[in-house]
Design goal:
By secondary structure, the chain is an alpha/beta fold. About 45% of the residues lie in helices and about 15% in strands. The protein has nine helices and eight strands.
């Protein structure tokens, strides 16, 4: 089984989080390459010199600002590598306020450090051991499908409160509401835009009602 690569430039930061949650990453040495200290220095040097080879890793995880003055360049190298090789990529940072997930080219997650270094990482690693991994466990936890639905419902409610027009620009809607995440859970939905790249408020209301019922039934059977 290939390992997960975790790149962390500050061992002390990681240890503070692990002490707070009572998690021992050392228990997962068989599946996790925890690149801190000398291992971090080695990987950083190879990334700078374009001599890195991540073939033996199935998932790449890194602190989003782990690479000093070379940070932006190396971040783009990691994105390009994961896009070419279709490997999931996760960036975590204390400066990330909201979870972000995209899989248009490859699986990509942005997540806050506190959320990443929570019990979610244990759940994710245990699922990986069982060959049932899903990187959405990192931002959304064990009940990731239900949590995604709840988050989207909250965004829908906020959007409807702030927009009273009957005709709504589709791009404005999708920028405010992460409806693409609904494609990752067992929920069928369709929001069709018209020839003017608009959707109706009634469509959004209908989606909200269907999502509410999905959440209600999911909560019953969880």
């Amino acid at each position: 089984m290939k390992k997960i690569l975790l790149i962390e430039d500050r061992k002390e930061r990681q240890q503070l989080f692990m002490n707070a949650t009572n998690i021992d990453l050392g228990r997962y040495d068989d599946i996790l390459e925890n690149a801190v200290d000398k291992k971090y220095d080695e990987i950083f040097d190879k990334l700078k010199n374009d001599s890195f080879d991540f073939e033996n890793y199935s998932i790449i995880i890194s602190h989003k600002s782990a690479f000093d003055k070379d940070n932006s360049v190396i971040i783009e190298k990691l994105k390009s590598y994961c896009n070419t090789h279709k490997k999931p990529l996760v960036f975590f940072s204390g400066g990330i306020d909201e979870n972000y997930y995209n899989k248009s080219e490859y699986e990509f997650v942005l997540i806050n450090s506190k959320t990443f270094y929570s019990q979610n990482i244990t759940l994710f690693l245990e699922a990986y051991k069982d060959e049932n991994e899903n990187i959405l466990i990192l931002p959304y936890g064990k009940k990731w499908k239900l949590n995604i639905a709840l988050n989207v419902l909250e965004e829908l409610n906020k959007f409807l409160q702030e927009n009273s027009e009957d005709d709504i620009d589709y791009d404005d809607f999708t920028q405010a509401v992460d409806i693409h995440l609904l494609g990752e859970i067992d929920f069928e939905y369709k929001v069709a835009k018209n020839e003017y790249e608009e959707i109706s408020k009634s469509q959004i209301e209908e989606l909200k009602t269907k999502l509410y019922h999905y959440i209600k039934m999911s909560a019953i059977y969880e």
